[in-house]
Amino acid sequence: MSERVLTFGQALEEVLAHAQSSVVARRVETVALLEGAGRVLGAAVVADRDQPPFNRATRDGFALRAGDVGEPLRVVGSLRAGERWLGAALAKGEAIEIMTGAPLPAGADAVVMVEHTMVADGLLQVEAGRTLREGENVVPRGAETRTGNVVLPAGRVLGAAEMGVAASCSVSQVQVFAQPKVAIVATGDELVELDEPMSEVQIRNSNSYALAALVKAAGGVGERLAIARDTLGELRAQVAEGREADLLLLTGGVSMGKYDLVEQVLGEFRAEFYFTGALIQPGKPVVFGRLPSEKGWTYFFGLPGNPVSAQVCFHLFVSPMLRALAGRTEIAPVFVEARLAEEVKGGARMTRFLPAELSGGWDGVKVSVVGWQGSGDVVANARGNGYVVLPAGVEDFPAGLTVRVLLR
Ligand code: AMP
Ligand code: MG
Question: Among 33, 79, 276, 318, which is most buried by a count of CB atoms within 10 Å?
């Protein structure tokens, strides 16, 4: 098998291109609105009426004709939210007391805030020198959306803001995409499951758990398969099972060691490899491709075994693919900019993604690298909340420099 090692940018492009072009729309399920929280909308939500449905007062005050401000106005009634004005249309020289959220009575074209008025003997006087624009403190009917307009497109995650929109459009049942199933296979002779006894030189299989949590956060359902020992037989068995999921993740066994057999086994299954490494650190051995399976093809990632490498590769490459499989339209990883809290030495030949702590306040967003023992250091990794991106070939990153940070 020929090696194909890409730069970070090329590798990401490759994943995004496959995610965008080869991933097909999925089965749609109908669930109660609140049960859809965090799921991906499988159908657009459409406005069931104009919003606002009437000319809405946005302040407590008085409905009037803007041009009447300046003269004393006769207060002819009062209107609360949820009520309709049943009297005659407002005439010149009249005002109606109105509450936030009430419909503007016919004849009125603005609302003056109660704070800017005085009422004495049934006569309203607006503060001297104050003028009012037509339409002031009123949102006209349909200004937010018109009946039948798409207010939430399919492919959007149903977060809190979207939930509010759906409820405002009377949607009690939402259509969401079925969640992709992700098979997770940890490989390694040294690995031991959580409930099994272990010797000093063995290692807990932590990757399967970290990855299952990442899968869940990205909108999939992780299935942890049994650990595969570094033998062709066990690897073949787990790949055969895992390729029937919607996505297959393997960790370990993709480096240059004598027992790193994952790529060989994938090759036996007639895998197509899109890259067999990326110039990133940690994560260089990462492998991406697809395998023939019963339903056609199944994408896979061979992630390095080192826990931080596996997680960084997940955020960079697996998340976008998983979001696409989950039906999301926004799939690319999100980077933010922050100022380095202290100097970091550069000089690496690969793009680095170091565990880092991002903190934000009114004085700006800062990031500081978490001290670590390298890509096996799960403890340091958990002290951070993102990864600072250090481009290749730069000798020094001084304190105060604006850098990119990968959020997690
Ligand atoms: P490998 O990529 O297989 O060479 O593994 C690299 C390092 O990651 C080794 O120190 C492994 O013990 C460790 N490792 C591999 N798989 C796991 C796993 N599932 N959980 C925790 N550590 C792992
Ligand atoms: Mg290994």
Answer: 318
